[in-house]
Amino acid sequence: MARVVKVFRTLRNHWKKSTFAVCVFSYGGYWLYGKHCDSVLRREACLLAREFGRQQIAPQERLRKATVILNPAACSGKANNLFEKNAAPILHLAGVEITIVKTDYEGQAKKLIELMEQTDMLIVAGGDGTLQEVITGLLRRPDQDTFSNTPIGFIPLGSHNSLSPSLHLLSDNKVKDITSATLSILKGETVPLDVLQIKGEKEQPVFALMGLRWGAFRDVAATISKYWYLGPLKTNAAHWFSTLREWPLVRDVSVSYLAPNLRPPDQPPQKHPRPNLLYRIIRRLKNYWSPPLEEPPKEEEPEQWEEQQLSTLELFIQTHNKNPVERRVNDSLMICAEPNDFSVGEFITVGNKKEEDPTLFTKNSTKLEASACQLHLPEGAGGFYNIDNEEYEAMPVEVRLLPRKLRFFISAERREQLLSQMQ
User: What pLDDT was estimated at residue 191?
Assistant: First the structure.
């Protein structure tokens, strides 16, 4: 008992050192517990992947091939380590023959995809920038009709992963997000996604999965990191300081758009049986002696463009990929424009919400549904666009929807969750 009293007396006499030691040991224990939880998650994912690897294949069947486009610079240079520890073992245990292609500089993924050979699946390991470069390079290829049928998997390793909530169940644990995304690739369930083709007057087209953003909220969001020293107040400070420099922050733009197209029914591709040999011989002889007459080319009806003048704080042209399993009547993109009568307080409040979800718009915003649109900026209007969180110089552009152009792997749990939200 005397020894216990002596220990407590020592702790009381050296209370500063004792407090510091408790803090250090508490943090160390929390850190070790987090590492243990990550190891458990990796082990569970590897056990599931091993079941895929033990499945038998026919003698004439070959292993599935996957090409991985990895951006090592994503997540502040941690992406390569995250992939090697959390995703690569799962793919190897599942028996997938992977080819890892690492990018060395910005824009290289576009060039690599243009040289890529045919593969069973394409895996993008990075963030929004890597994903946008990959789909741009893919859809710029001359044989893009063939390559666009290749299923694509997305492993979120970047600081911004805008598409990830549409495909996977997200958590606060990076390891869990990576392992669940990799397992969804192995399970093979896919969903079609719309793509936006964005073309300037002289530039090659750029392709996007989420949308194009232009306006005051975008400009302020690009400066928030400068106020890091203000901690949780940095978002409010960035919006408030922007109003001190200039107010109101209204942009004028002319938007021309085409009406949306009706969405054709979802029908699985049907492979018709091949006719017998005698029928094929008779058909060839008939076509040889009396070839069919060529039909005159049909005259295409001119596109009916409608024009609208908008005065807005922010314009956002977006796809419906936020909920890719939703059944819609039309194949369309959404043109959303915020009103121009915000007060300074409303501007700061809405800006805070948009920092968490850029696709969020107020009730009084203008919303147009279209299959294509053209943006005509006034002379002297500078600034930048955000195209899938990548910065591009603002200029007059034409945006066209490519409905259900690419297929992405989606987790079955996330699909069920999205379907339940619609009910």
Answer: 94
CATH number of the domain at 211-264+304-403, out of 2.40.50.140, 2.40.30.10, 2.60.200.40, 2.30.30.100?
A: 2.60.200.40
Q: Which CATH architecture has domain 30-53+61-188?
A: 3-Layer(aba) Sandwich (3.40)
The phi, psi pair for 95, rounded to 5°, reads 80, 25
- From the list 252, 233, 259, the residue with the least C-alpha distance to 380 is 252
Length of the chain: 423
Of the candidates 210, 11, 182, the residue with the CA atom closest to the CA atom of residue 98: 182
How many CB atoms are located within 10 Å of the residue 252 CB? Answer: 12
What does the DSSP 8-state code read for residue 192? Answer: E
Strands 333-337 and 306-312: unpaired
Residue ranges per domain, the chain?
30-53+61-188, 211-264+304-403
Enter the DSSP assignment of 127: -
Q: What does the pLDDT look like over 229-245, one tens digit per residue?
A: 998 899 999 999 999 98
Is 155 strand, coil or helix?
strand
**Domain 30-53+61-188 identical in fold to domain 211-264+304-403:** no
Q: Read off the pLDDT of residues 168-199 as tens digits, 9 standing for 90 and up.
A: 988 888 999 999 999 999 998 999 999 999 99
The number of C-alpha atoms within 13 Å of 357 and in the hemisphere containing its C-beta is 7
What burial letters (b/e) apply to 350-362, b meaning 16+ CB within 10 Å? Answer: bbeebbeebbebe
Give the predicted TM-score (pTM) of the model: 0.86
Give the three-state DSSP class for 129: helix
